[in-house]
Amino acid sequence: MPLDPQTARFLDDLRALTAFGATEPAIEDMRRELGAAVFAERRDLPHVTDLSVPSAGGPVPVRLYRPVPPGGPPLPCVIYFHGGGWVIGDLESVDATCRELAAGARCTVLSVDYRLAPEHPFPAAVEDAWAVAAAVAGDPARYGADARALAVAGDSAGGNLAAVVALLARERRLPLVHQLLIYPVTDVAMDTASHAEFATGYGLDGPTLARFTALYRGAADPADPRLSPLRAPDLSGLAPATVITAEYDILRDEGEAYARRLAGAGVDVEARRFEGVVHSFFMLPEMFDAGVEAMERAVRRLRAAFDNAISGEAGAA
After folding, report:
1. Which of 103, 124, 137, 281 has the highest CB neighbour number within 10 Å of its CB?
2. What is the rounded CA–CA span in Å between residue 272 and residue 278?
3. What residues contact residue 190 under an 8 Å CB cut-off, 6+ apart?
4. pLDDT one-digit tens code per residue, 233-288
5. Cα–Cα dist 210/256, whole Å
6. Are 59 and 52 in contact (CB under 8 A)?
7. Per-residue pLDDT tens for 133-169?
8. Catalytic residues
9. CATH number of 5-18+26-37+51-316
């Protein structure tokens, strides 16, 4: 499908925003530019607060979103990991998205400010991501979470972390009811057809992701499933999944390959490619009609997963 006109306007704006003087801008400059970018209008919620979760690498900052006032009942919980190639991004970069998920899915959302490379290379982000998931499962009352209905979610590199946490949850017997993977990185090989076809000019450039991946990966084995969940030998028994991809995105093929492998392993998975759009469309509903539709789909899938988990447990009781 041709580029959506909304996508063409977005790419024009993005080129103006990221017109760095150097061919390889400094990481700090990129972090600063991201922080200065204008994100979607933010929905008001009655309960948003910043906390921290202890981990081996030090306290992990998190932001808690709830669509009910403080002291309200426990709700299903989504643990959300932001994108940014494991190098940029923070709580603010996904604040609007987390607010929409909390309101739409009627759930608690816990956004995770995991450690970033190059200061903290792999597996620091994985360690932080797991520490938060384990903390919520171990003390759900602190987060207003219903332990019967825990899910993970993330976009891009955050989708990678969500998939990895789902793998670890299966191994460590932490029950998850869903994994929402938004154009996830699933293999650090970066050798798919979509990587070649959309390497430059479509928002997420191949050379930038290669640079970020190298900073994050360090000397680690690229076949390690904690880096490349697509290379995990067995995907059976994982939480049901929703996989969202964009047509004009270097990550399209690996996200869809992961969805096929999940389905082949017997996992309940719904995969949807949104045509004519690029990476980041999900985070920008004010620019992309497809972003609105994708959020609605994500919310429906999460609510169904939560309802099934809670009603199933109530029925068993």
Report:
1. 281
2. 14
3. 206, 209, 210, 213, 250
4. 999 999 999 999 999 999 999 999 999 999 999 999 999 999 999 999 999 998 89
5. 20
6. yes
7. 999 999 999 999 999 999 999 999 999 999 999 999 9
8. 156, 249, 279
9. 3.40.50.1820
Residue holding tokens 């994982």? 238
Q: What is the predicted pLDDT for the residue at 38?
A: 54
Q: In Å, how far are 29, 93, 117 from 24, measured between CA atoms? A: 10, 22, 16
Provide the percentage of residues in the chain whose pLDDT is more than 70: 92
User: In sequence order, what are the residues at sequence separation of 6 or more whose Cβ sits closer than 8 angstroms to the Cβ of residue 15?
Assistant: none
**What are φ and ψ of residue 303, in 5° steps?**
-65, -40
Average pLDDT, integer, range 216-224: 97
CB-neighbour burial class of residue 83 (10 A; exposed 0-12, middle 13-18, buried 19+): buried
Q: pLDDT by residue (tens digit) across 200-212? A: 989 899 999 999 9
170 contacts 235 by C-beta, under 8 angstroms: no
Task: Look at residues 83, 82, 88 and name the one whose alpha carbon lies nearest to residue 32.
Answer: 88
Name the burial class of residue 248, with classes exposed (0-12), middle (13-18) and buried (19+) by CB atoms within 10 angstroms of its CB: buried
Q: What is the residue extent of each domain of the chain?
A: 5-18+26-37+51-316
